[in-house]
Write a structure and sequence with these properties.
Layout lengths: L2 H9 L4 E3 L1 H9 L3 E4 L3 H5 L6 E3 L2 H4 L12 E4 L4 H12 L4 E4 L2 H7 L6
Parallel strand pairs: 1-5, 2-3, 2-4, 4-5
């Protein structure tokens, strides 16, 4: 393995950051969407397909998350979802993080409950 390949591997993300449009495509193909925000944030509005698993509980709770399907993490802005996606990827999930979080979801005109 060459130096460039080694550096790319060392600095690559174990998960994939994706746009709202890409999230919708994955959801239509059976992916799971987990919302890692706090309970208070969750109550302010969520994507209809999302399952609520706050990041602090995500560290120990993988119940109900199927390893055979892609998993997309979402938060308010994309920072916590990146942490969650990194954790999921380290546990063997095909993990994604939605860029821009719920702010991007709302801005794209997607439904919120």
């Amino acid at each position: 393995m060459g130096l460039i390949s080694s550096l790319k591997k060392a600095f690559s993300k174990p998960y994939k950051p994706i746009s709202v449009a890409e999230v919708k495509d994955l959801l239509s193909s059976g992916a799971a969407l987990i919302d890692v925000r706090s309970a208070q944030e969750w109550r302010t509005g969520r994507a209809p397909q999302a399952k609520h698993i706050p990041l602090d509980r995500r560290q120990t709770n993988t119940a109900g998350i199927n390893k055979t399907r892609p998993v997309i993490a979402v938060c308010a802005s994309g920072v916590r979802s990146a942490s969650a996606a990194r954790l999921l990827a380290s546990q063997g999930y095909d993990a994604y993080s939605m860029r821009g979080g719920m702010g991007a979801w709302r801005q794209a005109g997607e439904p919120v409950r």
